[in-house]
Every structure is written in structure tokens, then in C-alpha cells.
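Lab meeting minutes (informal)
Scribe: AK
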Amino acid sequence: MTTVSFVIPVRNDARALERCLTSVRRTAANASPAVEAEVIVIDNGSTDGSATVGRKFGATVLELPGLKVSELRNRGAAASRGSLIAFVDADHEIGEGWLRSFAEATLEPHAGAVGALCVCPPSATWVQRLYDRLRGHQDGRRYVEWLGSGNMVVRRGAFEQVKGFDTRLETCEDVDLCNRLRARGWRIVSDSRLRSIHYGDPATLGQLFRGELWRGRDNVRVTLRGPLTARSLPSLLLPVVGLTGLIGIAAGLVGLPFGWGVLSVGGLLLVGSVSAARCVQITMRLPSVSLRLLCQTGVVAVVYEVARACALVVRSGYRRRTVRFGGWSALVE
């Protein structure tokens, strides 16, 4: 019997947690008889009954207020007993065949972590649909450099070998974990059958800016830890170039005495170049492109890159707001 321990952190997201736990129960019912599911909910000081929802579904609930999400996941993993630890965020909904597909994907002995990029909600806004294209979905099974911690399973031995998530990080802790796993010789496997819907994707441009301002705060720090690869360099260089451009624009606007016009133009060119690179990345992943869609893509790219650049110098806190998708509601960053 193989035990898979689901570790789900939550804070004031009772309705999303109920949807998430329903999907976990459903996939467990469709799993092989040789697979057992254990569920651990780590409640980070909720006041909306999230802990009650967890207990209603038979989960083990740990109430640990005031901790970073990396610490919550580590505490949940320590309290679990499975040889495989499934990290799933409360605002995710996993597919019915998730556990069955995962069992097949973990047959490879050197796979330290298995998962897949999440997808946007069915009733997504145009911002969410374009944001989703940043993920670069690919069908099938392949080796990748990292996986998101909202939909990732890690072998307990591998997780303990690298001492879990780095609790000093507030964001990008999943990238850091995967980097350390790869440094120890483990492979990171993406399998598109492990489908997961993320209801916390930013629904508006404002939510996109705030979310990336927060998410990008540890981006450069984690990238510099290495290993540096051709794929990781843009994560390091684009925000730095964007910030340089923003500084040039700001200098021009305040009218510094030395060539303020040149600074403004140069800054605009730098910000425009990184945004254009992101726009091309999104556009290449679209099935078709219209003038309206191209304009929307450009706006999303600018907001994304400006937020990532500002994150290098602005320490934004974590904010969540309720948004609605048809009959569902979710908390987003």
C-alpha cells in the first residue's frame, strides 16, 4: 500500500478549501486500491471556518497562525506519514484522474518531484486567459526545471534530503526547492495528466500588478542561488532591465539637469523592450491573434514586467481579495 499525503495550507478560504477537498476525495475514490490518501490541512489563523471545513472532510487539521507558507508546508509534511507528499493549495481543484495518473508518473526511480502547471478557471477573464499563457503548457510527460508548489508531489526521501522548503523565502520557494532537488540528482517531471485548476489567478490588471509585485520579491534572490541556466537567465535579467528603464523614466519626469529627455526615452525603450519580449512569448502560445487580443496581450505584458521590476525594490505584503467566477468565488493575491 502506497500512502500519498496531501498537504494543503489555507487562510480564510473556506469555500475554496471545500472545493479543493471535494476534488481530493473524488480523485482518491478513482485511485488504485494500492494507493491510500491522507489529507492534512494547515490552517494559518483563519477566522472564516476553514478549519471546520477541513475536519468535516476528515482531514487532520493543524492550526498554525502567523507562519509563512513555506513553513506551513514543512510542518504539514512533518506531520504526514506518506512516502509521497502532495502539495496542493486550497484554491486549486485537481482532476478526477489526478491520483491515478500520478501513480503512473512516479514509476521512474529518479523522479524526485512530479506535477504539472495549473490552468486558469473555466470562466476566466481575459486577463486570466492571457496570464495562463505565460505558463507555457505542453502536453505529455517531460523533464522540467521546476514545478509550482500548488500542484506538486515530492518523494519524502528527496524532500527530507534537501530539508524541505526554505522558510526564509516568502515567494519562489517552489523554484528553490526544485533547484536543490536537481542539485542532488533528482529529476523534476511534468505530466499534463495531473490537471489542476487555479482559481486564484489574477482576474484584473490591478490584481495582476499586486500579485506579481509580491511574487517577484524573491525572484532574483532564488535565481542567483543557481544553477544558472539559459532558461533561468530571463528571470534575472528582464526585471533588472525593466527597473533600469523605470528609473530612467522617473529621472526624466522629475527633470534632472543632465539630459532628462534622453533618460526618459531610454527608459521607455528599456521598459518597452522587456514588455515586448513578454508579449511575444504570450502571443506565440495563442491559437490565433486579433488586433484586440494583441492589444490586450501588450497591456498584460507591460503590467507584468513593471510589477516584476518594482518587486526588486518594493517589499509588498501578501494581499488577498475575493473575486467571483460564475457561481464560484475565490481569494486571489
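Next up, CB showed the second protein from the same session:
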Amino acid sequence: MWRRNLSLWALVGRWWPVPVVLCSSLLIQKVFFESRYDVAGHAAEHLSSASTFFFACAVVIILLWTTPSALRQPDVLVACAAWLAATALVLVGNVRVVNALVDAGLGQTPTGRIPASAGIEAAHDLANLAPWFAVIAALGVTAALWRHRHASTRVAVGAAVATVLFPPWILPGAGMIVLVVARCIARGKSLDQDATLRS
């Protein structure tokens, strides 16, 4: 029992930043962003898409935490910054749509009942375009991590395929999750090896 508790504490000691970062990003998203809006229907869909930025911040923090040497590699940092910037554009574009719908009195209207409007259509421009910037940036992160051997060829291909095939309006750059999971696994193996060598 004592050994089991010890291994549990060791596990918590290794991985506590991951749940803390994820929970913090979710808390900030819910309390400081989504709570400002009372919407449903089409506006709620765009509000959900806008929230990608908060998750993206958590993903990048975890990715760099599991890959400390990447902090000294400018191409990795630039690619990560580009992905964050693109998801920030996703946020801005979708908030523009939400505000346009609320201003038009359509904040609770389902998607199929939104009337044609030049103002609402124009508000969609950035929301429709920004996810593709995020896809390109996520591919850049994948390439940079592969170049520095932080990701194997198999992981890089899997991340690239996920990024290209997963609908970008739901999660632009879904392959970033593949990269983070792979880096967490690699970090876990490295820590296990270090513990074995010490013992």
C-alpha cells in the first residue's frame, strides 16, 4: 500500500502541470470569455469555435514543457507562435460573427433560420479564413518538431494527416494533439529510464 501511494505521488509529481494547464485554460475560457455571452443556435456554434484559442494556449504550453530543448529552437517557437496567432484570428473572426448576430437580434436563432444579410455574411469572412491559417501553421509546427527529431516520422505523418483531414472549423490543427500526446509519452519514457538508471 505504501509503495502504491509512493508511485501515485511520483505520478502526480511528474504530470501535475498538464491538468493544471488544461483546467486553467478551461476556467479562463468559461469565466472570462463565454460568460459574457448568452447565446444559442448559430451564435453558440461560433462561440464554441472561438474557444479554440484557449485550448491552443494549453496545447502549446504542454508541448514546450514536454520538449524543453525546443525553447532554444527558433523555428519551433516561431511555428508555435504562428499557430497561436492563427487561433487568435479564429477567436476574433468568430466573435465578430457572434456580435453581428446579437446586434441583429439573432443571438438565439438556429443556423437554418439565419436570414441572408450582407453584414452577417461579411462578419463570417475572417471566421471562415482563419482556420486555414491555423492548419498551415500546425503543419509548420509538425515539420519543425520532426526536423529536430522531437517527433518521429510516423508521429509527424499522423499529425499532418489529422491536421489536414479533421474539419478545421471544429479544431484547426488537430494534429497538434497527436504531437502533444507523443511528446508526453516520450517524456514519460525518458523519466522512467532516468529512474531506472538512478536505481
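CB comment: Confidence is low (pLDDT under 50) at residues 1-6.
No objections, moving on.
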